Amino acid sequence: MASPAPTIRLRLTATYGIVFLITGAVLLTIGYALVRHNVSSPGRFRAELRRLGLAPPSGAPFFGRTLGFTPGAPETSVAEAVRAQLLSDALHRLVVEYLFALGVMTMISVGAGWLLAGRALRPLRDITATARRVSGQNLGERIALTGPADELKELADTFDGMLGRLDSAFASQRHFVANASHELRTPLAIMRTEVDVALADPGASTDDLRAMGGAVRETVDRCERLIESLLTLARSEGAVGRGERVDLSVLAGDCVTDMRARAQAAEVDLRADLAPAPTIGDERLFERLIANLLDNGIRYNERHGFLVIHTRAERGRVRLTVANGGPPIDPDEAVKLLEPFRRLDRSVGGFGLGLSIVRSVAEASGGHAEIKARRAGGLEVVVDLPAAVLSSREAGRAAAALTKS
Asked: Structural domain boundaries of the chain?
């Protein structure tokens, strides 16, 4: 049976004890050497006797005169032997006391190391406990570690950030599944009905079957567009923290070029006033955001109406504004258009996901989207985003554009 692996707390405690034992032994060895040198030096011993008034006359033998013995007497050798024995006994006691003190202090340091290691590793236990509790149903739980901004606090904050991203991804997935299952019921029911009617008629002609096939094909195309829109919405909701430097004015110019023929066909006057507006985000999602705004402005406009798009950068923010003409809209109803599957006129077509995608992309990129009804009719949508750092060339273009405006 394999023995359990030592915990990091035990390893840290052992490390503390070994380090203290080694450093204590070195310190006591140095102390012992200094003491032995001081007490063994005759010069230092004679100086101490002089301080006490017991020093022999100058030039007299050291131990004979100090202890009252005559030079060369046997008692002098005895005194030397007594002194050496006393010194040896004192140093021996010093070694024993040092070793005893070192052992006691090592045990105390091991106990203190155990307590300190447990206290230092307590945040790790909190992180481990939270990781064990977290599942797909409670991703909203957080460690929320308090204390100094050290490595453990950084680890806990990183773990909380990861849980936030997972929570957003799971919520986006659930939202996508719920929306798809709800919106696909109608087209699937239409296809089932068309097929059932064709199969129930034994005398169905080729034209009848072609009509059924055309209806099914049209419904399939609608399902494909719906799924694409739902996937875009889900991808935008899960795009937090990702992106690159993007200039909204460039993307807006490309979208205006692509949409101009459609606007002319709908008799809508499409105008653009574009100044550099660099930000950070997913370029494809920003393209979809602008395209959705222009598509919405053309789709729900009126004949001989207008559609204007502006981009600006100022005070560390960039702003994209799209305004279009159209019939008057209730302000309360206009605000609700940012929610999924909200449409003012169901006869126009679409799924009601365009503006909800706009809001989702803006929020995933660190900004927000606002919509309001214009008094003269139509809508105005403002997307506010954090700005990226302007290059000197872009700053000059922005200043020139603002001067002209």
From this structure: 8-120, 243-404
Q: In the CATH scheme, what architecture does the domain 243-404 have?
A: 2-Layer Sandwich (3.30)
343 vs 49: CA distance, rounded Å: 109
Q: What is the mean pLDDT of each run of 10 residues along the chain (405 residues)?
A: 62 85 88 78 57 52 46 57 74 85 88 83 80 73 77 82 79 72 76 86 84 87 79 69 82 92 92 93 89 90 93 92 91 84 63 82 89 91 86 56 47
Please identify which residue in the block is written with the tokens 């991808």. 235
Give the distance, in angstroms, between the CA of residue 11 and the centroid of all CA atoms in the same chain: 31
CB burial readout 93-119, b (16+ within 10 A) else e: ebeeebeeebeeebeebbeebbeebee
C-alpha–C-alpha distance, residues 291 and 315, integer Å: 26
Pairing type for strands 305-314 and 368-373 reads unpaired
Cα separation, 398 vs 387, whole angstroms:
13
Strand extents, DSSP E, 58-197:
none
